[in-house]
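Q: Structure tokens for this one, please.
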Amino acid sequence: LLLDKIAIQETAARYAAAPDQRRWELWEKIFTDPIELFLSPRSAETRRISRAKWIELERNICDSYAATQHSLSNFLIEINGDRAVCQQDITEMTSDKSRPANDKVTIHHRV
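A: Here is the predicted structure, written as tokens:
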């Protein structure tokens, strides 16, 4: 059980590292195809998108920034048989290409 939780945390770390390091091949390894996106914690609404399209959309967003940094914390991982749910906090810092290097935007969200 502990090894499973560590593997889930490592997968989340790869998710965060990919845009920061512009290593999109990491997402090729961790995402299914198609990707099923959970849109809101208030509903069960999901949307399917191809892995290639998702990576393309996210890459275009990240390319608009000079730099990004994603930090993960507060992992809550529940494993029940073959199913696992991971909740974590993400802090995302971005540096806009048109602003001074020390002018950053920080966003916090829970996924």
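A few notes: The first strand starts at residue 35 and ends at 38. Helices lie at 2-21, 25-30, 51-63.
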